[in-house]
Specification:
- The protein has 6 helices and 8 strands.
- With about 210 residues, the protein is α+β, with helices and mostly antiparallel strands.
- It has a single domain (about 5-175), classed as Electron Transport, Fmn-binding Protein, Chain A (Pnp Oxidase, Chain A), CATH 2.30.110.
- Strand 3 and strand 4 (about 50-60) form a beta hairpin.
- The chain has helices at about 10-20, 115-130, 135-140, 140-150, 175-185, 190-200; strands at about 25-30, 35-40, 45, 50-60, 70-85, 95-110, 150-160, 160-165.
């Protein structure tokens, strides 16, 4: 990913926090016909100094066959984004742009299909997104739950290279940044408002 130095996220903790806050990702792996992508939620597990991405997908998805032999894959996490009008800048000689935030993580992947591992994977997904459903899931019959597990394949990726980019007007003046934050912060578009929040969290506009 092309990252000008002023857009590079240098704090590892910021990149991890962004991934946790934006778990619906795109997993891309190489196939004989070119890149193959799947849109799925991906969670993060930190084990010692290692960052492990994990999730699952439908067993019928051809992508499952590409998650073997520690082949490198790319996980793309994307967050808020917004059009930035040049009318928000002090200088009239300005052009439009787009602000956004993204994290790319590369690493070897492996498929996981044993029942106990998959059961734990589903537990983590439920606890992350719908903990109130966990009691209902636990009360389901073992036959039903294990029957459902037969239709998915889990995966793990050990994070290697991490590229994190926040393109949020770091190259503009403080006054321009404050104008952008004020404008986007009033937007009814949650993505645009999210850029304003991210800019404030990164200390811009002050």
């Amino acid at each position: 990913m092309y990252i000008p130095e002023f857009n590079r996220v240098r704090e590892h903790a910021d990149a991890v926090a962004f991934v946790r806050a934006n778990p619906f990702a795109i997993l891309v792996s190489a196939s004989d016909d070119g890149p193959f992508a799947t849109h799925i939620p991906i969670l993060v597990r930190e084990v010692g100094d290692q960052m492990i991405l994990h999730g699952h997908m439908a067993k019928a998805n051809p992508h499952c066959g590409l998650l073997e032999n520690d082949q490198e894959s790319l996980a793309i996490f994307h967050g808020p984004h917004a059009y930035i009008s040049p009318s928000l800048y002090e200088s009239r000689e300005s052009v439009p742009t787009w602000n956004y935030a993204a994290v790319h993580i590369y690493g070897p992947t492996r498929a996981v299909s044993d029942a106990e591992h998959l059961l734990e994977e589903v537990r983590e997904i439920i606890n992350a997104f719908d903990p109130g459903y966990f009691a209902q899931w636990s009360d389901l019959s073992d036959k039903f739950r294990h029957g459902m597990l037969k239709h998915i394949v889990g995966f793990e990726m050990v994070a290697g290279r991490i590229e994190a980019k926040f393109k949020i007007s770091q190259n503009r003046t403080t006054k321009d940044q404050a104008s952008i934050i004020a404008s986007l912060g009033q937007s009814t578009d949650s993505s645009a408002a999210g850029i304003a929040t991210l800019m404030e969290e990164q200390g811009l506009g002050v």
